[in-house]
Structure formats: C-alpha cells, structure tokens
Amino acid sequence: MPRAPQIGDPAPDFELEGTEGTFRLSEHRGRPVVLLFYPGDETPVCTKQFCSYRDRGAELSALDAVVVGISAQDVRSHQKFKEHHNLNVPLLADTERTVAQSYGVSAPVMGTRRAVIVVDAEGKIAHRKVHVLGLSFATVDEISKVLADLPARDTVSSR
C-alpha cells in the first residue's frame, strides 16, 4: 500500500459523484478544501457529526472553504441520508474506496476511517487527523481553527 500523503505533500486529485453532482478536487484550487471521511450513512456517530454541521450551518458556510463528506456508500444512499437529516454538506460516493486508500484512511474490515484532511489553496495537505476509533469527530470550531491557522491566500499566491 502506498504511503499516505502527509502535511506538505500534494493532495492526490480525485473525481467522485456526489449529492451535488461531480466533484473534482483540482477544480477547487485557490480555496481550502476540507475532506471529511466518514464510515457510513445513518450510523450513530456519522449522523451526530453531520447533524452538528447542519445545526451550525451559518458558521460552516462562513469558513470560506469547500467542505465535503466522503464515504463508501453510493450517491443514492448519500441522498437519502442528506434528505432524512436535512444535511448541508455535499456527500461524495467513494464506492471502491480508492480515494480513501489514496489518502491512507481505509482499513481492512473497518472500511473508511473517520478523518479530516484539509487541502490548502495550493493543493497541498495542510492538516491531517485520522480518528483511531471513529467515536469522535471534528467540530465546526476545530475545523475553523485549522483553517484560521492556514497561511493567508495572498501569501500563498505570491510564493
């Protein structure tokens, strides 16, 4: 298995279908992207996680970052999950777990691990946290802090 990309490494590009159409990571250069890997739709912790983002939707929208959820269920499952809980984060279908594998967040038997990976405006890994047990998740406050600690985009673009 290839080494998982670490902070400072280029983020592996990918294209996945999701609840809001096709998503290609490289099309979002110039803005930070928050990749929220999660084990599965309608599971207790995942439901709590994504409902917490819904409940703090204004704050999540104010982050000035693209935020997406990624798991192995198909788009139909994601759409049902999103509609059932009125979720506000686009959900991407990594049915073959190729994206999870390329980011080092796929585990045998367990499947996709809960993880937060932030890709900076230049397309490099700026933050990586993989939850060992998957019983906790990154809150809006934690995501906000990570994004606030990124270099300003003017600084990034002038390098």
Descriptive account of the structure:
The protein is an alpha/beta fold and about 160 residues long. It has a single domain, classed as 3-Layer(aba) Sandwich (Glutaredoxin), CATH 3.40.30.10. It is about 30% helix and about 25% strand. The longest helix has 12 residues, at about 45-55. The chain is globular, with a radius of gyration of 15 Å. Residues about 155-159 have low confidence and may be disordered.
Summary, kept brief:
The protein has 159 residues and is α/β, with parallel strands linked by helices. 30% of the residues lie in helices and 23% in strands. The strands form three sheets. It has a five-stranded mixed sheet with strand order 5-4-3-8-9.
List keywords for this structure.
159 residues; Glutaredoxin; five-stranded mixed β-sheet
Strand arrangement in the largest pleated sheet: 5-4-3-8-9
CATH topology tier name: Glutaredoxin
N-to-C SSE series? Answer: EEEHHEHEHEEEEHH
Distance between the termini: 33 Å
Please tell me the overall pLDDT: 91
- Number-wise, the strands total 9
- Main β-sheet, in a few words? 5 strands, mixed
Radius of gyration: 15 Å
Task: Examine the secondary-structure arrangement and name the CATH architecture.
Answer: 3-Layer(aba) Sandwich
Low-confidence stretches: 155-159
Number of domains: 1
Characterize the overall form.
globular
What structural class do you assign from the helix and strand content?
A: alpha/beta
Summarize the topology.
Layout: E1 15-18, E2 21-24, E3 33-37, H1 44-55, H2 57-61, E4 66-71, H3 75-85, E5 91-93, H4 98-102, E6 106-107, E7 111-112, E8 115-119, E9 125-130, H5 140-148, H6 153-157
